[in-house]
Design brief:
Blueprint: H1 4-15, H2 22-48, E1 50-66, E2 72-79, E3 93-107, E4 114-117, E5 121-126, H3 135-149, E6 157-160, H4 162-207
Antiparallel strand pairs: 1-2, 1-3, 3-4, 3-5, 4-6
Helix pairs in contact: 2-4
Bound molecules: zinc ion.
Zinc ion binds near residues 214 and 230.
Length: about 240
């Protein structure tokens, strides 16, 4: 009973029909190396590819509450339709429009590998009837409505997307390997052409009984075995 490793070794040995040159080896080494580099690139892309979005959770209007006699009795707020921002309100005294917004930062490429949702904040747009000093009152009134609706977000939360990490690492692994292949291709071709040209020249010199190295007509020096011009071996098939 042969061990499975022995069988694998034999398969491997018998599969090596084509000689691997230095470029094939570089490509293989790159492929292995990039498996470790790809996650680092994904990690780096988290700081290089950052997109930010803002979503409006709620739009409110703060207004002066009036009693029957028309006296101000405090600031109230109510949710309004986003398209009614800044619209006049004939039946009461509007003070400000409040956009309750949340910023989200998305990081990573090609997929989003993590994102952070920041605590939501109120952006106050004062209307003509509202002096700057009343903004804290406006915010307090808005906050009551926001809490009642339950849309408040008071802490930043960051989430990592594991599946996106795995996919992005794989994508970078493939992209880096392909980039190496593309960079190597012209060098590979030039090297191949040079080798082929060199071989063709030497073969033709050998065919004419000339010295393969310098091209000197060595017909009369064949028995000496050495080129009288450059001293290189004539019989031994050169390794090229
Ligand atoms: Zn020679």
């Amino acid at each position: 009973m042969r061990s499975p490793f022995a069988i694998l070794r034999e398969i491997r040995r018998n599969s090596r029909r084509v000689e691997r040159n230095r470029f094939d080896r570089a490509q293989s080494a790159g492929f292995v190396l990039f498996a470790f580099i790809a996650p680092l690139v994904v990690w780096k892309m988290e700081s290089l590819r950052v997109r930010e979005t803002t979503s409006t959770l709620m739009v409110l209007r703060a207004f002066e509450m009036l009693d029957d006699a028309g006296r101000a009795i405090g600031v109230r707020a109510t949710e309004i339709d986003p398209k009614d921002r800044g619209a006049p309100w004939p039946q009461s005294l509007p003070l400000a429009d409040i956009d309750f917004v949340q910023r989200t930062v998305w990081r990573g490429w090609p997929l989003v590998t993590s994102h952070t949702e920041f605590a939501a904040e109120s952006k106050v747009t004062r209307l003509p009837a509202c002096p700057a000093a009343r903004v804290p009152e406006v915010l307090r009134a808005a906050r009551i409505v926001i809490d009642r609706k339950g849309v408040a977000v008071d802490a930043d939360t960051t989430r990592t997307h594991i599946a996106a990490w795995v996919f992005s690492s794989g994508a970078w692994w493939i992209m880096l390997s392909m980039a190496l292949a593309i960079v190597l291709a012209p060098i590979r071709l030039a090297w191949f052409l040079r080798k082929e040209t060199r071989t063709a020249v030497r073969q033709s010199r050998i065919g004419r009984c000339h010295c393969p190295s310098c091209g000197y007509n060595a017909k009369h020096s064949i028995l000496h075995g050495r080129c009288p011009e450059c001293g290189s071996e004539l019989y031994e098939r050169p390794t090229y």
